[in-house]
Write a structure and sequence with these properties.
Elements: E1 10-16, H1 20-30, E2 43-47, H2 62-74, E3 79-83, H3 92-99, H4 101-107, E4 111-112, H5 118-121, H6 128-138, E5 139-144, E6 147-152, H7 153-157, E7 160-166, E8 169-170, E9 174-175, H8 178-183, H9 188-191, H10 201-205, H11 208-223, E10 228-238, E11 249-259, H12 262-272, H13 281-288, E12 299-303, E13 328-332, H14 337-353, H15 355-360, E14 364-368, E15 380-384, H16 386-391, E16 399-405, H17 411-419, E17 426-432, E18 436-439, H18 446-457, H19 463-475, H20 478-486
Parallel strand pairs: 1-12, 2-3, 2-7, 3-4, 7-10, 13-14, 14-15, 15-18
Antiparallel strand pairs: 1-11, 5-6, 8-9, 10-11, 16-17
Helix pairs in contact: 1-2
This protein binds iron/sulfur cluster.
């Protein structure tokens, strides 16, 4: 399914402007107009960012999406579909209802695709075999590098495939590039890297999690490559991202990069934002697989010159200790990208949305990775991930010393003994420290961590998280979970 023909004529435009819409349209013109990409009667599929039921900049900027759909229609597209798989456990139907997406796109002459088939969930009381039938009709099984993926047929069958990507900072890959955007063409189940059973130092020191992740991303990308790729960082979340956190900052750059090859568009985006491309593993591996070109000489650069756009952005905090949460001391051992990514999001979430909870619960230690430093005199110890749990099994903090009196007889007899001069002997007992919360997983699942935190601290002590949990039930619906499972989505 890999189409190498585009590699001969790679064009990338760098555009700067006053508004996102104007800048995007200018970029399309520089590339030769939308008719260069869309032909009369085409069925077009647009892959955009659709993570949560929130707006831009977590999801794609709707101003640009609007212009892209209108351009495709003007070029004579017979059908314009849009879609993406959201965050694990959230159905597209739920997001569509929150954001009124079905009506919004319909008014533009386009259609949102419920890739998870969640539009069927409530229509009728569908039974398991009927859901299976719907799944088989909507997905193809594709094998790449001996791995099987359920891939949406509608994307395979579309004449033209476009990626429109909101660029924000990313904890593992520095930036949310279009290659990462393409990953959510498959459901969270097929994005999952899976846990590593026999934890050893090599898995961590080689950062095998990241290597497996890169391999999986590129497998998915190879299934259907886009004809047009738009990296929109006219506005970009820097410092903490890609979601809106307390330390996030929305930076206006006024720049959009677009072209006919995802890898080259990503490469130029990295270059403009002053990120080292020589050691950028995702790009290097994609190049090795022949998925694009990273030779600047072979990319026809149009529009602005890279050297004229001098942009620097603040990337995600690499050291979890520096996220600086009130009342939580973080101790990291040796860890891989899996735990780092999940802990990065959990800690940023806590810092942003659990401020009262942190204030009410002093003295917490958060240990992560293999053999983290032992915490001293902390009230609660949170062990994040299987490595932290297993490597601290014999740590000193697992046990507490408790003083006890040898004589435990009833009051009356105690009085007598006092009178007769007898004395209680103090004894030190070693007991298990119960103020430890284990957050298992390789890496742990964040929604599962929320539940375990609430159980451990109690809902009264975590009012923010308790409130958030109630909100979460509106978007991660238990009844839908089973159906998403049958659909092969989670
Ligand atoms: S538990 Fe965490 S640090 Fe350890 S191997 Fe798994 S993901 Fe990596």
């Amino acid at each position: 399914m890999n189409d190498h023909s585009d590699l001969k004529n790679i064009e990338v435009a760098i555009v700067k402007g006053d508004t996102p819409k104007e800048t995007f349209l200018k970029g399309i013109e520089i590339l030769g107009g939308i008719s260069k990409f869309i032909e009369e009667g085409d069925q077009v599929f647009i892959k955009f960012n659709l993570c949560f039921p929130t707006g831009f900049p977590t999801n794609t900027n709707f101003d640009i999406l609007d212009s892209l759909i209108t351009s495709c229609k003007k070029a004579g597209a017979r059908k314009v579909y849009l879609g993406s798989f959201p965050f694990k456990g959230i159905s597209i139907d739920t997001i569509s209802k929150f954001l009124n997406l079905k009506e919004y796109f319909s008014n533009l002459g386009a259609e949102i695709v419920f890739l998870d088939n969640s539009d069927f969930f409530k229509k009728k009381k569908l039974k398991g075999d009927q859901l299976n039938e719907i799944r088989n009709k909507s997905f193809s099984t594709v094998t790449i590098n001996e791995k099987e993926y359920l891939f949406p047929k509608i994307i395979i069958d579309s004449d033209k495939f476009i990626i429109i990507n909101q660029v924000n900072v990313n904890p593992v890959f520095k930036l949310n590039l279009s290659l990462l955007n393409s990953y959510s063409m498959v459901s969270p189940k097929y994005q999952d890297i899976g846990s590593y059973e026999n934890l050893d130092n090599r898995y961590i020191s080689n950062d095998q999690y990241k290597q497996d992740l890169i391999s999986n991303i590129l497998n998915v990308f190879a299934i259907k490559q886009p004809k047009l790729v738009i990296n929109d960082f006219f506005y970009l979340l820097e410092r903490a991202g890609p979601y809106v956190y307390r330390d996030s900052n929305l930076k206006k750059t006024g720049v959009i990069v677009l072209g006919n090859n995802a890898l080259s568009v990503d490469l130029i985006t990295l270059k403009i934002l002053n990120i080292d491309t020589q050691n950028y593993d995702l790009i290097l591996e994609a190049n090795q697989r022949g998925l694009g070109n990273i030779d600047f000489q072979k990319i026809n650069l149009l529009g602005e010159k890279i050297e004229d756009i001098n942009l620097t952005i603040n990337l995600c905090e690499m050291k979890l200790e520096n996220i600086n949460l009130k009342n939580i001391k973080v101790n990291s051992g040796q860890l891989c990208s899996g735990c780092y990514k999940q802990a990065y999001h959990l800690l940023n979430f806590m810092k942003t949305y659990m401020t009262k909870d942190l204030k009410y619960n002093p003295n917490n230690a958060f240990l992560i990775g293999n053999s983290p430093l032992e915490p001293e005199r902390f009230k609660n110890i949170l062990l994040f991930g299987d490595c932290a749990i297993k490597s601290t099994k014999n740590s000193n903090f697992r046990k507490l010393e408790k003083m006890s009196k040898k004589n435990t007889s009833k009051k009356k007899s105690t009085k007598k003994k006092h009178k007769s001069g007898s004395q209680k002997k103090e004894k030190i007992k070693i007991i298990a420290n119960k103020n430890i919360l284990e957050l298992p997983g390789c890496p742990p699942d964040i929604l599962n961590c929320f539940e375990l935190l609430l159980q451990y601290y109690g809902k009264k002590n975590l009012p923010n998280l308790h409130f958030f949990e109630n909100l979460l039930e509106l978007v991660v619906k238990p009844k839908e979970k089973e159906k998403l499972r049958v659909m092969g989505v989670i």
